[in-house]
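<goal> How does this chain fold?
<sample>
Here is the protein in question

***
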Amino acid sequence: MNTIWIRTICFCVVLLLGLSGLALASYSIPQESIDEQRIFYGSALNFAQPASVDYQKVVRSTPEYNEIRDKRIENGTARYWILMSEASNHAVQLISSVGKESDYDIIVANGYLEGLEEPIETVDVTELVLKKLEERQK
């Protein structure tokens, strides 16, 4: 009977150590591959819970972009660039908000981490960001 308990305890300890090792796995983007324009939240040097977002989809969902579309503001005009800048800032703010309110410690453009020499899988949080936008518009 004692042998069974000892084996069970040893198995549980090994299992817990293995699971804690998985939780501690961390990643980093090689220095030569860091593209600040594609990192919206978090640090490229140390992360464990990577996520990605369809940045263009988020920008196209902002009220600022909708104004460009609805009022047919011409590309290249001052008003167009002001609204595009505001739409971009709004999108990054929404993405950062999702990062701060979740367990994701880095949020990047879709395909960025998957396209590295050593690909890193991400979770797509686009719908979470769009939901955050919808909540703020209410």
Observations:
- The chain has one domain: 26-137.
